[in-house]
Amino acid sequence: MSMSEYPVLIAGVGLVKGRIKNIGQAMASVCDEVKPLIEQSKAFDAMRFKEINMVIRWAEESINEPEIDPLRKSKKSLEVATTISLREGKAVENDPEQLKSLVKAELGKVLNAIEVKYGLCHIYI
User: Fold this and answer.
1) Between 51 and 4, whose confidence is greater?
2) Top-confidence residue, 120 or 57
3) Contact present, 58 and 13 (Cβ < 8 Å)
4) How far apart are alpha carbons 63 and 71 in whole angstroms?
């Protein structure tokens, strides 16, 4: 049983001073958009986790490879983190569609990394 009604939860944290306007709405929108795609794909059916908790870290520089925490048997969620340059987020903060695209691109990287590590079936977002 999932801890929430969403298979993917996205949050953000700043590692440097600054904030990105409208990022919370973009993250929530992406979660809403990918929920039916993941549920229809039944991607999590064979997985030991039923939820992905993704944190986007805003930093000086982007890091291309997402970090995937080890799976803990007691939890049904997989913790992952990705790092994006704050400048990259600030550049699109006033365009809701571009901001959403930025978040989706990071989620795509995360899903690909999970596919490689755990054999999750590919999800087209």
Assistant:
1) 51
2) 57
3) yes
4) 22
Parallel/antiparallel/unpaired status of strands 63-68 and 8-14 = unpaired
Give the per-residue pLDDT at 17. Answer: 95
Confidence bin at 62 (pLDDT 50/70/90)? very high
DSSP the chain: --SSS-SEEEEEEESSS---TTHHHHHHHHHHHHHHHHHHHTTTTTSS-SEEEEEEEEESS-EEEEEEPPP-TT-SEEEEEEEEEHHHHHHHTT-HHHHHHHHHHHHHHHHHHHHHHH-PPP---
Burial of 13 (0-12, 13-18, 19+ CB in 10 A): exposed
pLDDT digits (tens, 9 = 90+) for 67-106: 999 887 777 889 999 999 999 999 999 999 999 999 999 9
